[in-house]
Every structure is written in structure tokens, then in C-alpha cells.
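hiii so um. not sure if this is the right channel but i have a protein structure encoded as C-alpha cells and i wanna go backwards to a sequence. like what aa goes where. can anyone help
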């Protein structure tokens, strides 16, 4: 998940994390954005952060 915030000084920040809270999948509206991909896009998917190339 990505949590975007804007501070009082106008500075934007993003926090990326894995949520294990089942409430994030309840909806609509859902807290988690759905991304659809096909067999050509599967190469860009990774099971863990450690697998993502730098």
C-alpha cells in the first residue's frame, strides 16, 4: 500500500508498506487500488520487495 500525506508546510511524502489488515480489503470503496494485467505484464510483477531489480 502507499499512504500519501501532505504536511503543514506543504511537503508531500509517501509511505510504502504491506498491510496485513483484512479490513483494507472490505468495500466498496476499497482501500487498495486494483491493478489489472495480462500475460505480457506478468514480467513486471514480484512476490516480494527483495525480488525487484534495482
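sure thing!! here u go:
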Amino acid at each position: 500500500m502507499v499512504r500519501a500525506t501532505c504536511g503543514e508546510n506543504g511537503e508531500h511524502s509517501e509511505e510504502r508498506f504491506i498491510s496485513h489488515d483484512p479490513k483494507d480489503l472490505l468495500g466498496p470503496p476499497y482501500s487498495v487500488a486494483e491493478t489489472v494485467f495480462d500475460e505480457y505484464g506478468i514480467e513486471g510483477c514480484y512476490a516480494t520487495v527483495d525480488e525487484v531489480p534495482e
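oh and The chain has a mean pLDDT of 84.
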